UniProtKB/TrEMBL annotation:
Annotated protein name in UniProt: glycerophosphodiester phosphodiesterase
GO MF annotation terms: glycerophosphodiester phosphodiesterase activity
Source taxonomy: Eukaryota, Viridiplantae, Streptophyta, Embryophyta, Tracheophyta
EC number: 3.1.4.46
UniProt record similarity statement: Belongs to the glycerophosphoryl diester phosphodiesterase family.
This protein's record includes keyword Signal: yes
Catalytic activity of the protein: a sn-glycero-3-phosphodiester + H2O = an alcohol + sn-glycerol 3-phosphate + H(+)
PANTHER family: GLYCEROPHOSPHODIESTER PHOSPHODIESTERASE GDPD5-RELATED, GLYCEROPHOSPHORYL DIESTER PHOSPHODIESTERASE
Superkingdom of the source species: Eukaryota
Length: 733
């Protein structure tokens, strides 16, 4: 068979100018980003392209479109009549810290602009205010300018050392420069674990007034982190805030300093501008009261005398233990609501480790703060505002019985192997409870001819075989794999049952580990037991059986894995029922050809290589032995430097020959996804389904995919996911 294999130029880059989407040439030259509803937030694409093109294009330019209406309780409503357990009964706010700072440089025009097209219509843009030498207020994420800009390269010899909260701190500070001095300073990504591909693209520092005028945010939040520091240098943050509020609508002002908020409290009406006291670490000292923030938390009545709300780190609400598992939630939200204080939670980002309870799914984390049955925070502060926007408008209040809508099959990869050791009873039980359609069993053979489920024929991959008494039977079999292993057919089934399962950790080099508490939990299953479990699960649509190394096993070990599979299916009665569909998968066309003669089960051909096209004759040949195809993710969207470089049409080509296409492997860890998906596995799934039109996902985290295609997500939301990329803009709702 002839494929066109994936070849990505080593230095492939995207020009920001090449964004085609569905805009006309005239529309693209006029403006790139427009807010949906309200005044446009203009970003002149032609001017940007003429001066300096972005190094790489953010392919999934977006994922959220306002497309419906939810009946919302007014601000005067009560929790008795609202689905929302916020103070007012309204949906929680999404506050974008520095705009979409998880991707673009914090507080840049493009970070703010991207927020408006990817987030809820009520999104609030957050500006960390710093003061310049000539008392201009700028939006910049830190007191020091050198971490998130190129100032150290422009003013190389001007590093200073100041006391910040009593601590000597070296760096480049805004108080040493006029606004004109900073006019040529360029914003960069300040978090080193994030992509730097958008650095050096001419994003200038914005004043508060410039940001409000250019971006026209639906809501504006000014955070005043260091009033005391500026006062020491004869700069008045109070004067600036009072002055700017005369020309700019400011919805929220926050500060961790009691004295600052007290000094401005009388000048603002809560109906127009709400003051929010920001809590820092519980052991840190608040400078005005000389109390710890932990002790101030016990006196919310005092906070109420000068503030309308509080902003707390998320672990104030949902603490975690030393092992990163959730502890019971605190009563802080309920306590604050009793005092009529709004509660905002901070420190949300999609690209940091979160509690293992969330299975690396940031959407699940947000939902635990806004839809847990006990309370809802009034807003969240996030570097990735798209995800909380989807949580609020698409996924909250779905309930466990939400019906399926999208015509997208969810197929497990070794069960829910992101949560439990692969192919164990617990992994399969979790997949079923998560709402998977098909559970999968990669069939291996024991020495005594027992077919059982295991992710790979080499026992070392998913068991403690190398540390067991069987380590002496390590052998090398080039026909199966490079290097040595302990193979399933070297042990009888009773011996295999003595091995301890080990959870897979494909991203351990990034120090991202899976569910440590259950890393050795569960038991391996014979194929017969697996089939019986599937029959007893009323929610399943079927099973997927994978057969590999059949030729070697037949020729070298005298075992027929295909016969064993067919016999097990027959003994379990699968050949006499229609309730559960059976799919049999292999990368070996000869196996599928042989099965074609014996069975009417759906035969699935798995393409091992990354491909981008196939000849008509090749596809015709595939149809002779297969009913559907499994492709890799990169066959659909090729990557370079963790960015999507293009979109192939291989899915459409195969489907045009009536071959459904399933794609693998979807994982929740943010490092498993292209930057284009905003470190959100739901965005990735949406893009493959709506953008490429795939028929199914093969995933290690079935809950994420099953929740995505829920009917209620489409039917009762004011936001719908919207897939967009270099070559497509496809509406989901």
């Amino acid at each position: 068979m002839s494929y066109t294999y994936m070849t990505t130029p080593p230095n492939a880059t995207h020009s920001f100018c090449s964004l085609s989407l569905s805009l006309s040439k005239e529309e693209k030259s006029r403006t790139f980003i427009k807010r949906i509803g309200g005044a446009p937030a203009e970003l002149n694409l032609s001017e940007m392209c003429n001066t300096r093109a972005l190094g790489l294009l953010l392919v999934s330019a977006l994922v959220v479109l306002h497309c419906g209406v939810i009946a919302q309780v007014s601000a005067q409503g009560s929790n008795a009549t609202s689905r929302w357990q916020t103070l007012t009964g309204d949906p929680p706010f999404v506050v974008a810290r520095g705009g979409f700072s998880g991707i673009f440089p914090d507080s840049s025009s493009i970070a703010y602009s991207l927020t408006l097209i990817t987030s809820a219509p009520s999104v609030i843009l957050w500006c960390d205010v710093q003061l310049t030498k000539d008392e201009a207020g700028i939006c910049f994420p830190d007191l020091k300018l050198d971490n998130a800009s190129n100032i150290a390269q422009i003013f190389k010899t001007q590093q200073k050392n100041y006391l910040v909260n009593g601590v000597p701190t070296p760096g480049w500070f805004s108080i040493d420069y006029t606004l004109n001095d900073l006019s040529n300073i360029i914003l960069n990504q300040g978090v080193y674990s994030r992509t730097d591909k958008f650095d050096g693209n001419g994003f200038q520092i914005l004043t508060v007034q410039d940001m409000a005028r250019q971006i026209k945010p639906p809501g504006l939040w000014l955070n005043i982190q260091h009033d005391a520091f500026y006062a020491q240098h004869n700069l008045s943050m109070r004067s600036f805030v009072l002055s700017v509020s005369r020309s700019v609508v400011v919805n929220y002002i926050s500060s961790p300093e009691v004295n600052f908020l007290r000094s401005i409290a009388a000048r603002f009406r809560p109906s127009m501008t709400k003051l929010v006291f920001r809590f820092l670490g519980k052991s840190e000292i608040e400078p005005t009261t000389n109390q710890t923030y932990g002790s101030l938390l016990k006196n919310l009545t005092f906070i109420k005398t000068f503030a309308s709300g509080i902003l707390v780190p998320k672990d104030y609400i949902w603490p975690v233990d030393e092992s990163l598992y959730l502890l019971p939630h605190t009563t802080i939200v309920l306590d604050a609501h009793k005092e009529r204080l709004e509660v905002f939670a901070s420190n949300f980002a999609n690209d940091i480790p979160i509690s293992f309870n969330y299975s690396y799914d940031p959407l699940t984390e947000y939902l635990s703060f806004i839809d847990n049955g006990d309370f809802s925070v009034d807003g969240v502060l996030s570097d990735f505002p798209l995800t909380p926007s989807a949580a609020v408008d698409c996924f909250a209040h779905l309930g466990k019985n939400a019906s399926k809508s999208a015509n997208l099959l969810v197929i497990s990869k070794n069960g829910a192997s992101g949560d439990y050791p692969s192919c164990t009873n617990l992994a399969y039980q979790k997949a079923i409870s998560d709402g998977v359609d098909f559970i999968d069993c990669p069939v291996q053979m024991s020495k005594d001819g027992v077919p059982f489920c295991l992710s790979f024929i080499n026992l070392i991959n998913s068991t403690n075989a190398a540390q067991s008494k069987f380590n002496s039977i390590t052998t090398t079999i080039p026909e199966i794999m490079a290097g040595s292993g302990i193979f399933s057919f070297s042990l009888i089934w009773d011996e295999i049952q003595t091995l301890i399962p080990q959870i897979s950790n494909p991203y351990f080099k990034f120090k991202l580990f899976r569910n440590p508490k259950n890393k050795n939990a569960g038991k391996f299953m014979k194929l017969s037991d697996f089939l019986e479990m599937a029959k007893n699960a009323n929610s399943l649509s079927g099973v997927l059986i994978s057969i590999e190394n059949a030729v070697y096993l037949a020729e070298k070990q005298g075992m027929s894995v295909t016969n064993s599979v067919m016999e097990a299916l027959g003994n379990a009665g699968y050949n006499k029922q229609t309730a559960l569909k059976v799919m049999i998968q292999s990368t070996d066309s000869s196996v599928l050809m042989k099965l074609r003669e014996k069975t009417s089960y759906e035969l699935v051909y798995k393409v091992k290589e990354n491909i981008r096209d196939a000849l008509n004759q090749t596809i015709e040949d595939i149809k002779k032995f297969a009913d559907s195809v499994v492709l890799s993710k990169e066959s659909v969207y090729p990557l370079n430097s963790a960015f999507i470089t293009s979109a192939t049409d291989i899915v459409q080509r195969l489907q045009s020959f009536k071959l459904p296409v399933y794609v693998e492997t979807f994982s929740n860890e943010f490092v498993s996804q292209a930057w284009d998906f905003f470190s959100d596995p739901t965005v990735e799934i949406n893009t493959y389904y709506e953008g490429a039109g795939i028929d199914g996902v093969i995933t290690e985290f079935p809950m994420t995919a099953a929740r995505y295609r829920s009917k209620l997500v489409r039917k009762q939301t004011s936001l719908c996911l919207y897939g967009a990329g270099i070559h497509f803009v496809l509406k989901v709702c």
